Amino acid sequence: MRAFVRQLRPALLVFVALTAICGVVYPLVVTAIGQTAFHYRANGSLVRRNGALVGSELLGQTFTAPGYFHGRPSALTDTPIAQVSGASNLGPTSDELAAAVRQRVTAYRAENGLPATQLVPVDAVTASGSGLDPHISVANARLQAGRVATARGLPVDQVMALIAHHVDGRMLGVLGEPGVNVLRLNLALDALRSNQ
Amino acid sequence: MSWQAILQAGALALALFITVPPLGNYLAAVYGARHGVDRAPGERVFGPVERLVYRTMRIDPRREQRWTAYAASMLAFSMVSVLGLYLLVRLQGSLPGNPGHRPSMSPAGAFNTAISFVTNTNWQWYAGEVSASHLIQMLGLAVQNVVSAAAGMAVAVALIRGVVRAGTNQLGNFWVDLVRTVVRVLLPLCLVFSVVLVSQGVVQNLRGDRVVATLDSGASTTQHIPGGPVASQEAPKMLGTNGGGFYNANSAHPFENPNPLTNLLEIWALLLIPFAMVGAFGRLVGDRRQAKVLALVMAGILVLITSLASFAEQSGNPRLNALGVDQSMSIQQSGGNLEGKEVRIGAAGCGLFAGPTTGTSTGAVNCAHDSMTPLGGLAPMVHMMFGEISPGGVGVGLMGLLIYALLAVFIAGLMVGRTPEYLGKRIQAAEMKLLTLYILAMPLALLGFAATAVVLRSAHTYQAGPHGLSEVLYNYASAANNNGSAFGGQNTATTWYMSTQGVAMLIGRFFTIVPALAIGGSLAAKPKVPVTAGTMPTNTALFAGLLAGVAVIVAGLTFFPALALGPILEHLKL
Asked: Does A82 touch chain B (CB under 8 A)?
């Protein structure tokens, strides 16, 4: 016990010293480097349109209008001071999960005018890991193309071409999975309209 | 599984193959250098910083410690850290650096969080977005991300010294090992890694949330774009096998893990030091084949578990097929069970992360483990129940497998009727008693608390059916093994769970480290016995098989009955 008590003073001093190094100097150095060398990335990859901030290219948003592509279901929760990211955390055999998916499948088919036999891409009816997934699968985007084209009075082919143009492929050819960035795709759709 | 997913795993293995050996050599040089006698690498840069810290502490870095003093230093440092962190999170509401107005934590919440980050667990009962200010993330949590890792590496080095040295009671100096690890290993790596992460989109600023009107005015929602010093915390989170997320979604959050490249780098980072410690072990004991045997066992279990998780998730959830959901893999979608997963990472990418994060004591997640298929979720759960030896947390993983190696030589010794030896040290009654203590601590905490929780009505915060038992088992396995990942569907923000998990984390950390240090002290005092024809070699494939077998049997006998009623039953009911 005496040995332990004797160690308390160096313990306290090294705690303070290492807190200064690891908790003040180190993060501030990283912040300085990040803000200087990677200003856009370090501040959240913010997207602006006509000067106004509309979001981050890395974060998914809620879209409900038929003329916009819709992102994945989200378990994001709103609190008075912040939005909390996260997943539903429903277990694979949960009845609640089955009910939610059943309802989303029906809604997806109705919204996009699809037959009752149409299989629905899994990413369209399952909640993402962060609640902020910026991507949807190509299959999901293509099934929504008809609805978007009708709502905007565009030829379907043009919308399909736009989808193909906005696919984020696997990095280095093998890393991760391909997906369509919904915010960037929708911004491109809006830009199309303002150009006409 | 797509061929790209398999190549992705191959790329990870290749990256480790290239980077682990040089880091192992560097670690061996750092730990092998005696203060004031040999020059540790990078003396010109790091020496002055270290000497400044030693002067502040008023300790003599040349003085070595017996195992009791070494353990006392480690415990004193941990206790001061727990108290310091407890005060910080309790007072956070009144401290500056809190642009998001996060309130102070409750006593039970602060108790849990302080223990969690000091024991390298990083279990989080809270959501970072609403519960931790920027100041606390930097000054409290990120600091422990670095120093708790360093403490784990220090005790592993002390155990190695116990094996290497003979006829002494000195195991090194905890303060020197701690400070050297921080200054020469962790901080330089973290600095480089965090800048790489920023370049890919991990945020690093000191702002609060920006609230923006979303593009679709019909959805009439605003979006919070969070800020924070994320990259500087993400780097030690992975390199130090900590795993505590800046945000609630952890490495599924695009600001913590923005793209497939960062995803792979994060997996690489959490495996790097645990494997490099094995390389350092080989150097320090002067027989690299000994290290190869340990690395082989670690990698073997890791690959099996990771494959199981990846295949199970890519196969999808059979219950969803009946609802008209397409989970197949095609050119247009990656498919699989995507509940709780991100499109850019995919089902296979979730498995590739879930294996390493539970084989080490990391516990970061890039998908919701609770929503994995029964077998996909079984994989990370079992991985923790092995005691995290494949390859385990920084330092403590190597320590754990060395303990299993002693058990393996003991069992082999019993079979042939000879006194067991490991690396020239006789393993006798004193070591075996301590070893039993080490092996029993984690299962006792895990199963004891889990069993109590399921009979307590007030602790009934889990989902219905066998999945509920899986949640309880997973979450205590996570606490007792200092992992920190969760089956997040269970509400663990109750006083019962916050306090019992706090105790489980303490048991899992210190009831293993202290016996291991005692074993180190006992081994250091023994003379080296010469190798004879009767010595069982421990650097052969046969021993690797024996070692893996012992680990599997110990974990299997302990946990199979509980697993049968949880994930296995749930799988059969699919």
From this structure: yes
